[in-house]
Write a structure and sequence with these properties.
Helix content is 0%, strand content 54%. It is mainly β and 119 residues long. The N and C termini lie far apart (40 Å).
């Protein structure tokens, strides 16, 4: 059974840092593109950052230079290091594991973790 377990959200002041973690169980981590999405109140869910199994990374323009995504294949865990946080980064952050464009494609989501940045 696939599960994505997130941790690390919380309340931080503007300019501060947080690190989100997501452990992916169920045997899919090594073949997945893993990433983080976020959804603020009244807005659509958007990609924050992703990292493929081959090491390709993608970032939203709004977080480039401030956020870093990394993955530890030995621990089946993806991290999102968030620095220089801004109030507009406030959202629920969702971990994602997906494999698209193959016969065995899949998309899985975590339950979400709240990140609140105070001004």
């Amino acid at each position: 059974q696939v599960q994505l377990e997130e941790s690390g959200g919380g309340l931080v002041q503007a300019g501060g840092s947080l690190r989100l973690s997501c452990q992916v169980s169920g045997g899919i981590f090594a073949i997945s593109t893993v990433g983080w999405y976020r959804q603020a109140p009244g807005k659509q869910r958007e990609l924050v950052a992703s990292r493929s199994s081959g090491g390709f990374t993608d970032y939203a323009d709004s977080v480039k230079g401030r956020f870093t995504i990394s993955r530890d294949n030995a621990k089946n865990t993806v991290y999102l290091q968030m620095n220089s946080l801004k109030p507009e980064d406030t959202a629920v952050y969702y971990c994602n594991a997906q494999r698209i464009g193959t016969p065995e494609q899949f998309i899985y989501w975590g339950q979400g973790t709240q990140v609140t940045v105070s001004s």
